[in-house]
Write a sequence for this structure.
């Protein structure tokens, strides 16, 4: 089924135009309105993203695209035109993200309500399975599987694997003060921070219950615009809500960037493996 057929079936409207938006995404004009049609990258991908969007948008803290239709292959969403970043929108986004995180989740590693346990982050599979504590979840489902994938591609030596093994063993020490599970976007790199005329929207989630420092680390990984304004407003809002960030939270940025670096290494190889190893070494207590 192509994008035109999917939108006509899921939205029950007349499609008058289709244009490629990049990758697996098409911009489709249906009933004089532009929508986004996105083909899933694998089993459960569309269901996971739709569930994540609904969960993140439940309280209207940070705007996310509305889900207009979904099946096993296609997800149809609201289209939001882009606009230049502004300081005001950056600060509003930081405050809103803090509130979103504090909405909480049932457990570390839990999928969004109605979402599958086997989800995706970009083109990589990602397992969401509830755990009582963050270190166990992070080691079991965000470090170890991707180290194994990298080993299968001969990206790490036996000696280098021992660095990741030691980190997983000592993760309770490295994780910082215990926190309750946060409601995470899960893939908050700069490309998924969408600047629009009315503010910042979050798109393409890999949503799950996790540690709020993970989203903050992702914002820093690939250079989000006006990052200092976002993080400053976030910290102020979190403190105002009675849940200030730990004073040493920035020391754990490499730890929380380790998963996306390992995932990129497993998918793309190259320098990401070296970056992941450096992040693991920097995270050892």
């Amino acid at each position: 089924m192509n994008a035109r057929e999917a939108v006509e079936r899921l939205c029950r409207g007349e499609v008058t135009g289709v244009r490629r938006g990049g990758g697996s995404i098409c911009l489709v004009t249906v009933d004089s309105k532009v929508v986004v049609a996105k083909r899933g990258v694998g089993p459960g991908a569309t269901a996971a993203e739709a569930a994540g969007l609904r969960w993140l948008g439940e309280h209207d803290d940070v705007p996310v695209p509305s889900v207009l239709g979904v099946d096993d292959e296609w997800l149809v969403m609201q289209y939001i035109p882009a606009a230049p970043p502004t300081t005001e929108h950056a600060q509003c986004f930081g405050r809103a993200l803090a509130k979103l995180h504090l909405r909480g989740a049932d457990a570390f590693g839990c999928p969004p309500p109605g979402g599958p346990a086997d989800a995706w982050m970009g083109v990589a599979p990602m397992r969401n399975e509830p755990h009582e504590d963050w270190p166990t979840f992070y080691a079991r489902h965000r470090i170890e599987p991707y180290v194994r994938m990298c080993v299968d591609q001969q990206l790490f030596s036996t000696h280098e694997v021992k660095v990741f093994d030691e980190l997983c063993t000592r993760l309770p020490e490295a994780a910082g003060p215990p926190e309750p599970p946060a409601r995470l976007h899960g893939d908050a790199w700069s490309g998924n921070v969408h600047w629009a005329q009315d503010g910042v929207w979050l798109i393409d989630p890999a949503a799950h219950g996790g540690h709020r420092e993970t989203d903050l680390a992702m914002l820093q990984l690939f250079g989000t615009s006006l990052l200092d304004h976002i993080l400053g407003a976030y910290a102020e809002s979190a403190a105002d809500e009675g849940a200030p960030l730990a004073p040493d939270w920035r020391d754990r940025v490499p730890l929380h960037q380790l998963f996306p670096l390992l995932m990129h290494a497993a998918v793309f190889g190259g320098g990401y493996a070296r970056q992941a190893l450096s992040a693991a070494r920097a995270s050892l207590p």
In short: The CA atoms of residues 95 and 236 lie 8 Å apart. The first strand starts at residue 15 and ends at 22. The chain has two domains: 1-79, 81-285. The chain has a mean pLDDT of 96.
